[in-house]
């Protein structure tokens, strides 16, 4: 048990923090500690978790991408227009279209990074502005409300009436999120590609000398994030029942903070799916609690900034240096 805690210190720490924050918020607010609120949090967090597991793969490979949320907005619009062209389509065709567009946009980033040797943060800042600028220019900021009925109809997988008359439910976004989480976990922990991504992120030059195809790693990592962005964008359109050009704008920092908080190292070569999911849930719980307490959303932005700083500091500093009095030696993963 002690070995398990040492090797998964980040995940256990996040669980502890989530329990403490939830306990505090349950006393500070009247509605936080309820099954209905917990299920709402899960439904609301689904899109961010889909984005997060995609970003996790990029961070493991030693890159960074801040354009995925805007890319998801482009995918939303492109998919909605394509569905109009083909007469409405269905879930299968929409997933194929959204996934293809997402992978394409992700591969554009990979091309800029690998072929033109542009640092990933610079390349994705550029594509962030290009994607968003083109989207707003061609759409003129106009939202799409006339979507196919199958896309806007809520798909409830589980529902139950509570004694107080309220309903709890699990919707389609949760199922899609679970599939994306399992697929990402399989990719990075059960495949040769996953091991190569970790090796490449930890030591790019060593990976190259070992014979790992560097270009393939870049395209797989950013293509996977593009795939998750495309799927997440479609799920967001289903959940919101509309396509708004700037609806996802700004969400990239929330997701980045959650993934880094979950143990992913910005230098590459480290990260787990469980830590990533727990990081998103911690961010969502904090935001939900502040909203219930009536705290300004600007305060939440300050907290996100602080979380990024703290998480980066912890990821670059050995735990025993931060807690020398504990006599405990952490294990770097």
Automatic annotation (TrEMBL):
<keyword id="KW-0378">Hydrolase</keyword>
<keyword id="KW-0997">Cell inner membrane</keyword>
<dbReference type="GO" id="GO:0022857">
    <property type="term" value="F:transmembrane transporter activity"/>
</dbReference>
<feature type="transmembrane region" description="Helical">
    <location>
        <begin position="92"/>
        <end position="112"/>
    </location>
</feature>
<keyword id="KW-0813">Transport</keyword>
<feature type="transmembrane region" description="Helical">
    <location>
        <begin position="119"/>
        <end position="138"/>
    </location>
</feature>
<dbReference type="Pfam" id="PF02653">
    <property type="entry name" value="BPD_transp_2"/>
</dbReference>
<feature type="transmembrane region" description="Helical">
    <location>
        <begin position="41"/>
        <end position="61"/>
    </location>
</feature>
<feature type="transmembrane region" description="Helical">
    <location>
        <begin position="68"/>
        <end position="86"/>
    </location>
</feature>
<dbReference type="InterPro" id="IPR001851">
    <property type="entry name" value="ABC_transp_permease"/>
</dbReference>
<feature type="transmembrane region" description="Helical">
    <location>
        <begin position="170"/>
        <end position="189"/>
    </location>
</feature>
<feature type="transmembrane region" description="Helical">
    <location>
        <begin position="12"/>
        <end position="35"/>
    </location>
</feature>
<protein>
    <submittedName>
        <fullName>Monosaccharide-transporting ATPase</fullName>
        <ecNumber>3.6.3.17</ecNumber>
    </submittedName>
</protein>
<dbReference type="GO" id="GO:0016787">
    <property type="term" value="F:hydrolase activity"/>
</dbReference>
<feature type="transmembrane region" description="Helical">
    <location>
        <begin position="255"/>
        <end position="283"/>
    </location>
</feature>
<keyword id="KW-1003">Cell membrane</keyword>
<keyword id="KW-1133">Transmembrane helix</keyword>
<keyword id="KW-0472">Membrane</keyword>
<feature type="transmembrane region" description="Helical">
    <location>
        <begin position="210"/>
        <end position="235"/>
    </location>
</feature>
<keyword id="KW-0812">Transmembrane</keyword>
<dbReference type="GO" id="GO:0005886">
    <property type="term" value="C:plasma membrane"/>
</dbReference>
<feature type="transmembrane region" description="Helical">
    <location>
        <begin position="295"/>
        <end position="314"/>
    </location>
</feature>
């Amino acid at each position: 048990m002690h070995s398990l805690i040492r090797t998964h210190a980040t995940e256990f720490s996040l669980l502890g923090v989530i329990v403490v924050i939830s306990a505090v918020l349950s006393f500070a607010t009247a509605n936080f500690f309820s099954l209905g609120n917990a299920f709402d949090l899960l439904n609301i967090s689904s899109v961010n978790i889909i984005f997060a597991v995609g970003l996790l793969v990029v961070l493991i490979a030693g890159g960074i991408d801040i354009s995925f949320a805007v890319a998801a907005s482009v995918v939303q619009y492109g998919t909605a227009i394509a569905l109009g062209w083909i007469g409405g389509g269905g879930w299968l065709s929409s997933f194929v279209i959204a996934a293809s567009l997402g992978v394409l946009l992700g591969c554009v980033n990979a091309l800029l990074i690998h072929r033109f040797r542009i640092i990933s943060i610079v390349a994705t800042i550029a594509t962030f502005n290009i994607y968003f600028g083109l989207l707003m220019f061609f759409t003129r900021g106009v939202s799409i409300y006339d979507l196919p009925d199958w896309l806007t109809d809520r798909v409830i997988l589980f529902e139950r009436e509570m004694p107080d008359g309220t309903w709890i439910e699990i919707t389609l976004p949760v199922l899609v999120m679970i599939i994306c989480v399992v697929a990402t976990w399989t990719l990075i922990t059960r495949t040769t590609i996953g091991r190569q991504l970790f090796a490449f992120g930890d030591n790019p030059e060593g990976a190259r000398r070992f014979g790992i195809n560097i270009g393939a790693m870049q395209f797989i990592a950013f293509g996977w994030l593009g795939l998750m962005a495309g799927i997440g964008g479609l799920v967001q359109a289903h959940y919101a029942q509309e396509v708004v050009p700037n609806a996802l704008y700004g969400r990239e920092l929330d997701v980045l903070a959650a993934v880094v908080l979950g143990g992913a190292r910005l230098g590459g070569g480290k990260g787990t799916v469980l830590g990533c999911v727990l990081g998103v849930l911690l961010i969502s719980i904090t935001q939900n609690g502040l909203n219930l307490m009536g705290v300004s959303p600007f305060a939440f932005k300050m907290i996100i900034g602080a979380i990024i700083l703290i998480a980066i500091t912890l990821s670059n500093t050995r735990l025993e240096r931060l807690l020398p009095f504990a006599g405990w030696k952490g294990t770097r993963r």
